[in-house]
Automatic annotation (TrEMBL):
Entry annotated with the keyword Mitochondrion: no
Organism the protein comes from: Pseudomonas rhodesiae
SUPFAM superfamilies: Class I glutamine amidotransferase-like (SSF52317), Homeodomain-like (SSF46689)
Any one GO MF annotation of this record: DNA-binding transcription factor activity
Protein name from the UniProt record: Transcriptional regulator GlxA family, contains an amidase domain and an AraC-type DNA-binding HTH domain
Length: 360
């Protein structure tokens, strides 16, 4: 692996940020250093004024510094959580805008993208946010394209939804920086069965997208989800909820911004992708299970939606899941002085780099 400058990352913690999202973002960086046997990434935490801050689960966190006293960073992530609207201050907005003027790469974790949008730093960009805030962001920031994807990398903006989605974003980011083999090895260390991509969407309960005002639409979508192998004719769906076909079309266009047939196709393709990546089911059988009349038709639809044919997707997934046994080299050290020093005591320290060397 060629030596590259260390990438420094600053995590700005806001009041009631989600601890699991922060951990999901930081741990892949730690493991990248450990497996490579060198310091690829360096990270710091900061609250705006440097004082301790509470996570959403009530755990108090003492940051490394205030934002003004923090070391210079290549990337700045805003870590949000609950009550995000009440944590955005004019001082924070001013500071973030200044970082953008310095051409810093900016990111948002969980609800952190709300803060970037509030500062006007996502205008003209696509971003991800936790699904609870999708509708609110779409309503509040007309110049921002809010995506239901788990994470979004759009030029100098890196945003993810909450929970474990930041791990997928960081694994993808590390793969871009240092190769997919390293990110796959990190995934194996975390017993993370599948690295999800930007094409993977959050599982968003429809009631959070529509509220409680569209029970018929929710009922139709539930029927669609339960009948992917044998799709129900749209006329029959409309009749089931006592609507005309035209009313059904208008309802989907108004609330889901697509036709019912397009929405149904998307559900089937997403299900097909899950089966393709997670099971050994043949593509021929998979097409039948997801309601396609023929394998060529399935392959055409899949390629148009995901950008790759299902055969290539299956091959890439198989290559990523080939497990390489790490080289074991236990090193006993005194009390570590840093995160990297601590990693040296792990059996897997440098194993990825040594494996690459042995493979030539």
């Amino acid at each position: 692996m060629n030596a590259r400058p260390v990438t420094s990352i600053l995590f700005v913690l806001l009041d009631r940020f989600t601890l699991i999202s922060l951990a999901s973002a930081v741990e892949p960086l730690r493991m990248a250093n450990q497996l490579s046997g060198q310091e690829l990434y360096r990270w710091y935490t900061a609250s705006f004024d440097g004082t301790p801050i509470w996570a959403s689960d009530g755990v108090p966190i003492t940051p490394d510094s205030s934002v003004d006293a923090a070391p210079s960073a290549d990337i700045i992530f805003v870590c949000g959580g609950t009550g995000i609207q009440n944590t955005v201050t004019p001082e924070l907005v001013k500071w973030l805008r200044a970082q953008a003027r310095y051409s810093k790469r900016l990111g948002g974790i969980c609800t952190g993208s709300w803060v970037l949008a509030r500062a006007g730093l996502l205008d003209g960009f696509e971003c991800s946010v936790h699904w609870e805030w999708l509708a609110a962001m779409q309503e509040a920031f007309a110049r921002v394209t809010v995506s239901p994807s788990l994470f979004t990398l759009d030029r100098g903006r890196l945003t993810s939804s909450g929970g474990t989605a930041p791990m997928d974003m960081m694994l993808h980011f590390i793969g871009l920086d240092h190769g997919h083999e390293l990110s796959a090895a990190i995934s194996d260390m975390f017993v993370y069965e599948r690295m999800r991509s930007e094409q993977d969407h959050q599982r968003i309960p429809l009631k959070h997208m529509l509220g409680t005002q569209q029970p018929k639409l929710q009922e139709i979508v539930t029927l669609m989800e339960a009948n992917l192998e044998e799709p129900i004719d749209l006329d029959h769906l409309a009749e089931y909820v006592q609507l005309s076909r035209r009313q059904l079309e208008r309802m989907f266009q108004k609330y889901l911004h697509c036709s019912p047939s397009r929405y149904y196709l998307r559900l089937r393709l997403i299900r097909a992708r899950q089966l393709l990546k997670q099971t050994p089911i043949s593509i021929v059988e998979l097409a039948v299970l997801c309601g396609f009349v023929s394998t060529p038709h399935f392959s055409k639809c899949y390629r148009e939606y995901f950008g790759v044919p299902p055969s290539d997707e299956r091959l890439a997934t198989h290559e990523r899941t080939v497990v390489q046994k790490p080289v074991i080299n236990v090193v006993r050290k005194p009390m570590p002085m840093s995160v990297l020093e601590q990693a040296r005591s792990e059996a897997t320290f440098g194993s990825f780099r040594r494996l690459k060397s042995s493979l030539g």
